[in-house]
């Protein structure tokens, strides 16, 4: 794509109808392989256009001729010989004024999301981690939190046992041993590239609206275990981490815990945490630790991670949205993360713990309607987006990319499934139900034993002879 970057100069020359413009028409050649590294905003750097034009002693420049120059730049960029990105956007018609307006909107959004850091850490996976003063994080832009500071840690649920098997130091950015100083929290910096990949700048960092959890009309497919019919004040599980293949930029694969209340039609409240691979959101295929929330069925409230005012982070060693390492391998080492979500009986906020005892932060109770009181359902499991490329099922994988029947070391799992009751006590789940929307594509098998308690294997390859 080629963008005319001196339109302002051209219009000024046309207005004055004097002097000569020499080699002022610049364009930015953004080939696919550099698109992840550079922004449209950097089109204002001086890269020369293959069709440079020189004008001598002109008194007026016709708008039709300018459009011709722009068209030539567009054509020249389309024949770039650079290697394409893994995920290539569909052909789009470039409208310079719309592009400039979009860049302006992106910069405004980035000013809201990215807060001034006191320290910056570069991760080996390309992420930039900003250490931001805890009271300046995005959550405190919310009118009901302005001027406040993070809450003190709550009392852990009764019956909590530290999971010694869960891998705790599991984020790539922290492997260097460098952390954020006291009084700050690590936040993955959002870039212009991140926002340009989004299908909508205004809905950046949000899931698409869904009609029902058990509906796949919007392309979402699940393999989950769930409990319902009681009042739930939290949930806990250990989740196997893998790197499933995601076939296109606008699909994802995730494994998570949901705490749910309300109806699936319009007033659904959810609290969500787990790991996901989302090329659209992060620009790569690393499994990443994430959070999400909504109070209106994904319509206008809520977001991933810290991309809006909502979740309040209290920990300086965990970066939400950062890549997880190590990951499990087929017939090789198996690694999982332990997650605990529970409602603080004293203040009513919903807290999140990662690994074996690391408090990450909390969702304030005022964010929700139904979850102000309690949840009515808890789900554990996997979800993918199926955009049906070419009219057939996607080959995006769930979990390990292998069916549940292959078992340990081959299939992905959830183990030690528990819920928190009204008395702030952790209990093993009872009457666990399992459901796979498309069992020929992704399936699930549950069980119980003395070591893993309630558990299940789940996942699959997506497209295969039984899932065309």
Helix and strand topology:
Elements: E1 2-4, H1 7-16, E2 27-29, H2 63-78, H3 96-113, E3 119-122, E4 128-133, E5 184-188, H4 192-197, E6 220-232, E7 234-240, E8 253-261, E9 269-277, H5 279-282, E10 288-294, E11 312-313, E12 336-343, E13 350-354, E14 358-363, E15 375-385, E16 412-420, E17 426-428, E18 433-436, E19 443-449, E20 453-459
Antiparallel strand pairs: 1-2, 3-4, 4-5, 6-15, 6-18, 7-12, 7-16, 8-9, 8-15, 9-10, 11-14, 12-13, 13-14, 16-17, 16-20, 19-20
Shape: globular
Radius of gyration, whole Å: 25 Å
Distance N to C terminus: 35 Å
Taking the sheet with the most strands, its summary is: 9 strands, antiparallel
Task: Provide the succession of SSEs.
Answer: EHEHHEEEHEEEEHEEEEEEEEEEE
Characterization of the model:
The chain has five helices and 20 strands. It has helices at 7-16, 63-78, 96-113, 192-197, 279-282; strands spanning 2-4, 27-29, 119-122, 128-133, 184-188, 220-232, 234-240, 253-261, 269-277, 288-294, 312-313, 336-343, 350-354, 358-363, 375-385, 412-420, 426-428, 433-436, 443-449, 453-459. The radius of gyration is 25 Å and the shape is globular.
């Amino acid at each position: 794509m080629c963008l005319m970057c001196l339109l302002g100069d051209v219009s000024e020359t046309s207005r004055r109808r004097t002097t000569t413009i020499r080699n002022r028409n610049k364009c930015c050649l953004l080939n696919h392989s550099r698109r992840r590294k550079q922004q449209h905003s950097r089109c204002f750097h001086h890269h020369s256009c293959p069709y440079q034009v020189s004008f001598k002693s002109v008194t007026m420049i016709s708008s039709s001729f300018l459009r011709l120059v722009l068209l030539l730049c567009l054509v020249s960029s389309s024949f770039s010989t650079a290697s394409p990105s893994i995920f290539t956007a569909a052909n789009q018609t470039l409208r310079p004024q719309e592009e400039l307006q979009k860049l302006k909107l992106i910069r405004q959004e980035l000013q809201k999301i990215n807060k001034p850091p006191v320290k910056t850490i570069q991760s080996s996976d390309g992420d930039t981690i900003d250490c931001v003063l805890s009271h300046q994080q995005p959550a405190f832009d919310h009118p009901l939190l302005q001027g406040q500071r993070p809450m003190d840690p709550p009392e852990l649920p009764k019956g909590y046992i530290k999971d010694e098997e869960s891998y705790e130091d599991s984020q790539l950015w922290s492997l260097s041993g460098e952390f954020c100083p006291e009084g700050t929290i690590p936040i993955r910096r959002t870039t212009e590239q991140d926002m340009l990949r989004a299908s909508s700048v205004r809905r950046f960092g949000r899931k698409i609206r869904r009609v029902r959890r058990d509906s796949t009309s919007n392309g979402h497919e699940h393999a989950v275990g769930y409990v319902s019919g009681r009042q739930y004040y939290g949930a806990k599980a250990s989740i196997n981490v893998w790197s499933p293949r995601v076939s296109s930029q606008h699909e994802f694969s995730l494994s998570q815990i949901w705490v749910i209340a309300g109806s699936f039609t319009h007033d659904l409240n959810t609290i969500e945490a787990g790991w996901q691979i989302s090329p659209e959101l992060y620009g790569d295929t690393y499994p990443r630790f994430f959070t999400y929330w909504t109070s209106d069925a994904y319509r206008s409230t809520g977001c991933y991670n810290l991309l809006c005012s909502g979740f309040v982070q209290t920990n300086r060693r965990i970066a939400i949205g950062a890549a997880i390492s190590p990951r499990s391998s087929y017939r090789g080492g198996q690694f999982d993360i332990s997650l605990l979500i529970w409602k603080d009986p004293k203040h009513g906020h919903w807290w999140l713990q990662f690994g074996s005892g690391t408090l990450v932060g909390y969702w304030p109770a005022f964010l929700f309607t139904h979850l102000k009181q309690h949840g009515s359902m808890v789900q554990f499991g996997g979800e993918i987006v199926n955009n049906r490329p070419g009219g057939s099922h996607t080959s995006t994988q769930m979990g390990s990319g292998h069916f549940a029947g292959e078992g340990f070391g081959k299939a992905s799992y959830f183990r030690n499934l528990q819920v928190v009751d009204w008395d702030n006590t952790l209990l093993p789940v009872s009457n666990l139900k399992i459901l796979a929307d498309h069992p020929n594509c992704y399936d699930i098998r549950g069980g119980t034993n003395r070591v893993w308690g309630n558990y299940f294997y789940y996942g699959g390859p997506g497209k295969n002879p039984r899932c065309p």
